[in-house]
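Why should sequence recovery work at all? Because a backbone constrains its sequence more than one might expect. Tight turns favour small or flexible residues, buried strands favour hydrophobic ones, and helices have their own preferences. The token representation captures these environments compactly. In the example below, the structure is given first.
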């Protein structure tokens, strides 16, 4: 069995989440492959986040940053996970897939690296931004109003009309804003972003405002996890490159 030795470094987590902890991951191990030929992708990863915390996972390429983010969301059924992922007092590893659906995209927003891959080419932008709310049972008119508002916050000009467009009609930066809107619309408690600024040029990063009215300043390096986050949320971002 191959064991990864370069698991992203985090401070060792408390065994028992302290009161007010948003996300506590003690000793998460992630394995893939068959029982006979198992590969340990992440070895005893620990993390603790309180509401409002921002955490960046730093590690060389292939050290398991993306795998860790995907494991927390349980989006890869082939991974074997041991340990626990305590989110708002619930161990996500114990939830059924049906219950996980109400966490993913609602309580935890996700932003993945490739905005085109995250968008359905056959659905309008508006339908996709509204989708998390519609799944949660929000009425169409209200979902439309909130989708327009969140797109406007992300500086999508003429948002009502652009909601009728399809992803191929949007530029890369605009698609990234749509993916951010999808992550933000449910006002999640935690946002997990994998390489959130990689697809954004610095100008777009600088234009994207915080929902609380502050401007997000791009660093110019494209490495910092600069993207909006709702108030009182935690944020788990991954740097796309090893930190220097
Ligand atoms: N579904 C999978 N099955 C087996 N190995 C995988 C799978 N997904 C990723 N890996 C491997 O896990 C390791 C960590 O990958 P990843 O998390 O993408 O690294 P990074 O830190 O660059 O984001 C890599 O060796 C990658 O090839
Ligand atoms: Mg990665």
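From this structural description, the recovered sequence reads:
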């Amino acid at each position: 069995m191959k064991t990864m030795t370069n698991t992203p470094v985090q401070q060792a987590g408390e065994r028992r989440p302290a009161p007010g902890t948003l996300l506590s991951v003690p000793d998460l191990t992630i394995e893939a492959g068959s029982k006979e030929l198992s590969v340990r992708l992440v070895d005893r990863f620990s993390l603790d986040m309180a509401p409002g915390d921002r955490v960046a996972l730093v590690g060389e390429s292939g050290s398991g940053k993306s795998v860790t983010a995907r494991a927390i969301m349980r989006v890869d059924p082939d991974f074997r996970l041991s340990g626990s992922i305590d989110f708002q007092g619930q161990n996500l590893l114990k939830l059924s897939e049906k219950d996980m659906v109400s966490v993913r995209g609602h309580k935890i927003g996700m932003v993945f690296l490739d905005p085109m891959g995250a968008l359905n080419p056959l659905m309008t932008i508006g339908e996709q931004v509204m989708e998390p709310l519609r799944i949660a049972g929000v009425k169409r008119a209200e979902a439309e109003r909130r989708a327009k508002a969140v797109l406007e916050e992300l500086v999508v000009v003429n948002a009502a009309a652009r909601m009728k467009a399809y992803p191929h009609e949007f530029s890369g930066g605009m698609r990234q804003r749509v993916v951010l809107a999808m992550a933000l619309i449910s006002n999640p408690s935690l946002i997990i972003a994998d390489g959130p600024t990689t697809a954004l040029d610095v100008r777009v990063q600088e234009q994207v405002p915080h929902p609380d009215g502050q401007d997000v300043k791009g660093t110019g390096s494209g490495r910092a996890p600069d993207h909006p986050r709702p108030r009182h949320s935690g944020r788990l971002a991954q740097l796309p490159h090893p930190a220097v």
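A few observations help interpret the result. Confidence is low (pLDDT under 50) at residues 1-14, 208-232, 240-244.
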